[in-house]
Amino acid sequence: MQQQIEGSQAIAATVALCRPQVVCAYPISPQTHIIEELGAMVKTGRLEHCEYINVDSEMAAMSVAIGASSVGARAFTATASQGLLFMIEAVYNAAGLGLPVVMTLANRAIGAPINIWNDHTDAMAVRDSGWVQIFAETNQEAVDLHIMAFALAEELSVPVMVCVDGFILTHSIERVDIPEQEQVDRMVPPFEPRQVLDPDDPVSIGAMVGPEAFTEVRYLAQVRMHRALDVIPEIAGRNAEVLGRAAGGLLHPYRSEDADIVVVAMGSVLGTIKDVVDDLRETGLRIGVLGISCFRPFPVEQVRAALGAASRIIVVEKAFSIGYGGILSTDIAMALAGRTAPIHTVVAGLGGRPVWAASLRTLFLDATEGRLGDTVFCDLNTDLVEAELERMSRSRQSGPPAENVLRDLANRSGGAR
Amino acid sequence: MLFDVTSAGADAFASRGEKAAFQVRLHGRGGQGTVTGAEMLSVAAFEDGLYAQAFPSFGSERMGAPVEAYCRIGRSVIRTREPVSQPDVIIIQDPTLLGQVNLFGGLRDDGYVLLNSVEKIGDLDLGDEVMGLRHERFLSLPATEIAREHLGRTTPNSSLLGGFAAMTGVVSLEAVNAAIRHRFTGPLGEANVAAAAAAYDYVRHEIQEMEHAATD
Fold first, then answer.
1. Does B54 contact chain A (CB < 8 Å)?
2. Which B residues, 94 through 123, put their C-beta within 8 Å of a C-beta on chain A?
3. A268 touches chain B (CB under 8 A)
4. Which residues of B111-150 are buried (b: 16+ CB within 10 A; e: fewer)?
5. What is the pTM of this model?
6. What residue numbers bound the domain in which B128 lies?
7. Reported ipTM
């Protein structure tokens, strides 16, 4: 049913339709509304046959999810930012054990400096953990991807992380079509675990594996993950059939077929980018978009095919590898190995900085004229940066950089408020 | 007639182009329901069959501190995720914000302001930024007093939404009522609906007075 609803509420309602049996989570912004709503649904009986387990940390949340999943329960949790880092050992374990836990990651920056706002640094921190990572562009897609996540996780026995831009999506109220129970049941059949801890038929899960077989177990994880590249389009097809709309999939190309320049990005910023691209198309520029919906496993061949005709590529990223540069850009470059199209990285939206259409438009036009650098920080306040660099060169004891930058900023805007 | 209230909404969309959304910025203080106001406005737009997107300014909110929230309303899917920097409408829930924060930044020349105040706009010194606005698009509304009368409490949202419907025509009063009933059930919902209707009538009356003054 079409509703005007907050992103978090829509996600919670959808997770409930997927009939989780265990929900365990620890609150952290901007994810909290999701688990609060699920907790309320369990308590009031709107979500039946589900145990909501209060835990004392994110480490416990993922550990409980692992325990629940290994006895054959459908397990869900959600986190963000530092919460994800706090559970990281268990995040790797869920993947290494092949347990189909589903987790919402309400994407948020990682400190220090402490910051509660959106970027993709948290998702990138667990990029190599063995979780499937899919990114939502809108709250409608967040809903559809959660359904896909349970189906995919249980079909392949891999954990799936649905990345949803914190605040920008989780706290936005927009029109969302939440499917009917019967539709979700068709897409998410009852959980048939590949491995299960059962007292009547005892096995152990979590063996120590030495050099003699560790490579093989890891290789099998890679095989399982790669199967997702086939299964995700299958599920997307099934979603389209049941829901009557395109939902999920690996990539979302937009006006890119005949494009000279293609802008690549993940998550909610794609909406703003599409508006800019439509405007630039009206000026005659052949520019398009490639949205990466599935980031892990990375759809190398599909990306290569989708970007094949482009003569220039701009990757807009909400994270970067400090000391190197773009992270998604590196994957794009690998997918295009042997091609000559230049790839620019635009780092934008860090720590919740708004990504303005006007700024993107300027950068895209710079690119068409060959004036865009290899790695550009969108809307960087160079005055602030230079002031701190100058302070550092002047004095060995220049002090904490974050505090210095904030003080300079307050002074420049006419004194502290 | 100089202008027709019922077609104001159509005008508002026409002046922005079919694809562009009508953008609203709400200013209030933490605890006054600023985010809820934006949400209810988006629900009203949804009830009218429009697309809408409401979101808070994502600050660390504290009771009493200035808060902003936004709502975009359009005839097609709204894709942008930018904050609202050039609003068509500014709704000010708390008159004590005047002179305290930059309320009118980015307001479009053809924009609207709806101020919760018992004072008439002409009696307030609001600075040059808003002097160019059309009179019928720059109104004060005693939303707190209307709320107190109908609800016995001072939450101005329903009154301001009724006033917004009358001033801009972007959403209908019926849709505002539906949004109110979506949020508040039973007698509280009906009291809020009454407050919205009173505010709607107040603003319509203000606009008609201006028309008469202009034609005299």
1. yes
2. none
3. yes
4. bbbbbbbeeebeeeebeeebeebeebbbbbbbbbbbbbeb
5. 0.95
6. 5-215
7. 0.92
